[in-house]
Design goal:
Length: 293
Amino acid sequence: MARELPPFSALRAFEAAARHETFTAAADELHVTHGAISRQVAAFEAWVGVQVFHRNGKRVRLTDDGRRYLATVQAAFDSIAIATEQLRDTGVVHVLRVNALPTFAMKWLLPRLNQFQRIAPSVELRLSTSNTPVETLENFDVAVRRGPAHWANCASGHFLEETEIPVCSPALLQRSPIHIADDLAKHVLLHSDTRPDAWRNWLAAAGVKAKCRKKQSFDHFYLALQAAVDGLGVALGPLPLLSEELASGRLVLPLDGPRIDARGYWWVARREVAEAPLVAQFCRWLESQAGPA
């Protein structure tokens, strides 16, 4: 059965105009005239029967329908580009070097990597972890860092929000219930050197008046989280990184809130490789995976 697809030239015009938010820049990229882009987009909208752009002078802005369609079109273009590259280099293994924060890699990225491997089976993804600033990082194509920040000579994009809320083991909660935030003063608070101000900010936001004097510190955040699983104290857990632990019951939320907005996660790609098909595909895949596992 033949697929009902719009003309490829119209799809290219739509995708380029959506990225640049102007028909003129899209025309320059595709080496056609402004009028050609305008006609192709208009013909595409007539073909699908849906308006995909709001026109405002020389600028164009995606409608909600257009924004949803763009994500699918870009993913398809990425897949076509990767498949074409693989066809040219049959038998060649394509390497993608990803450096991520340790806790993010363990709790969020690794549980999802099999999904990326299914759509990019010939890619050898070399994953390393560190808290090293991107500016001094070597031998990477894409890094995942908390931001926003200024990363020199890099392209970047935000893909995952994070909120922080106390978490603990159900056994700990049974031994010593936490009904209100002030009850935390009875517990050991688990700190991390990589997030030194997290508890102070949360306690201030919660309006805790009791003195929380008992604490234990760890050099890595994932150690503090594991200590919470093992019942050593209460950690300040990042959502959605702990979705698996909460779903399985290894960790519970002793309080309803407050949930403090933390620094979200950004992909950061070296500018010289940021538009390479494989790098672009991985970064868009990160964005597509930003929901719960």
